[in-house]
Design goal:
By secondary structure, this protein is an all-alpha fold. The protein contains four helices and no strands. It has one domain. Helix 3 packs antiparallel against helix 4. The protein is globular and about 50 Å long.
């Protein structure tokens, strides 16, 4: 895998879920008690996806053997979390209803593109 691709993929993973989780966490924390156990579980799940994305980036930077597997898992989890947060969420989001579908489609296309790249780059 080229170093430019590693940097671009790392930027994608670092900006996508960790930044989204940070915004979600800061906007949800004051009203988390009113959102109940489902809100807490959802927030923890989104935090786990963000942590997986950061772990994948660290593995990519360090050239670890598990980097491709972690990156694939992070991409799939990130696209699933994006879809879930736009359609089945108890947490607050500042997304217009008409923007949901384009945002979800973009997330899936980005993840699919990177998964295809990883498949071709890691093929012998």
């Amino acid at each position: 895998m080229s170093s430019a691709a590693i940097w671009l993929l790392s930027a994608t993973l670092l900006v996508w879920r960790p930044l989204d989780f940070a915004i979600e966490f800061s906007s949800t924390l004051p009203s988390l008690g009113q959102r109940g156990l489902i809100g807490v579980v959802e927030l923890l799940a989104h935090g786990a996806v963000a942590a997986l994305a950061v772990a994948a980036v660290r593995a990519l930077w360090n050239g670890m053997p598990s980097a491709v597997l972690l990156t694939r898992a992070a991409l799939v989890a990130s696209s699933l979390a994006t879809t879930q947060s736009h359609y089945w969420s108890v947490l607050p989001h500042q997304t217009m209803p008409g923007d949901r579908l384009p945002m979800v489609v973009t997330a899936i296309v980005v993840a699919a593109g990177w998964l295809l790249y990883l498949r071709k780059a890691s093929a012998p």
